[in-house]
Structure of EF-hand domain-containing protein:
Amino acid sequence: MSAVQYLCAHCRCDEALGTLFKTAFSQQDRDRDGLLSMKETEQALLSLFILHPDHLSRLRELLRAGRDLRTDLPLFTAISALTTRVLLKEPQSDAVKPESISGKEGLELADFFALNWKLENISVRDDLRALLMYLA
């Protein structure tokens, strides 16, 4: 399972954020094919968040995403949720951290508690392991 597949399968967000993410996706999907290029994905993220270039680089690194990545709505929703985590973990002076994400930190810490131990005898792809370790 790749990092992108993991995010699509296991990343969840509340309904209000999902609607916000869907609106940003739809605004960038000008040809209405249901897919965004990497450039369109970044533009949609920039319409949602004030991101530093380092944040976009971190997202590309975590997703192992090249310029050829095509993003559908479920993947965009997962990437948007991941972006909130990146903003939380790597605040920048010229980027704004969404206030709505700070209350969920305790639950997320529990989700990733003892992650190295949980993954000890499990075969996990390098890109997924890197994503999980970043999230932990």
